[in-house]
Design a protein that fits this description.
single chain, mainly alpha
């Protein structure tokens, strides 16, 4: 699932794309702030819910930012197989962490016999949308497989929400038919 990368990216364009990745650190900080919120009855319980997600976002953001720098500094503006694997793994790590977070929230909600929302849910939604933006950034440079990062339903939802992804998927399908 990739599009032919642009040969030239301006420094400003590369910086914007890099900032799209590093904003994940800000969202991790927002998740940390939910633990200390006045709206949280039990800070320890909230920490148990969000801490694994915070750690995984931070780890993945480290890898994604490192790999982006390597790709941007490479002469061809392309990634090697190691970069592709690391990028896919980091993106998958975030999707799994979000899914695990949602499972923890649902488990607590079932114990309370209701459908509770967690104060971190809006931040997690922002993280999900940002990761989708990061996927688009990397698709310009790396032939990553969306199906190795997320499940089929998530890929289809992303395709519907982002026309660039739909176009990239179409271009890849056409290239496979011709090749």
């Amino acid at each position: 699932m990739a599009i032919t990368p642009k040969n030239e990216h301006s420094m400003e364009d590369l910086e914007t794309k890099y900032n799209d990745i590093t904003v994940l650190y800000e969202y991790a900080e927002e998740l940390v702030s939910t633990v200390e919120s006045q709206f949280v009855a039990d800070g320890d319980e909230q920490l148990a819910i969000v801490e694994p997600l915070i750690n995984d976002i931070g780890d993945a953001a480290d890898i994604l930012s490192e790999e982006f720098i390597l790709i941007a500094e490479s002469k061809k503006g392309k990634a090697n197989k190691s970069s592709k694997s690391r990028v896919e793994s980091a993106l998958r790590k975030i999707y799994v962490a979000i899914s695990d977070y949602q499972a923890r929230v649902n488990a607590i909600s079932q114990k309370a016999r209701g459908t509770l929302k967690n104060i971190a849910d809006p931040v997690v939604a922002k993280v999900q949308r940002q990761v989708e933006q990061i996927i688009v950034v990397f698709l310009e440079f790396v032939q990553i497989s969306l199906y190795s990062i997320m499940n089929k339903a998530e890929v289809e939802a992303l395709r519907v929400r982002d026309t660039r992804v739909a176009m990239m998927m179409h271009q890849q399908a056409m290239a496979q038919q011709q090749g």
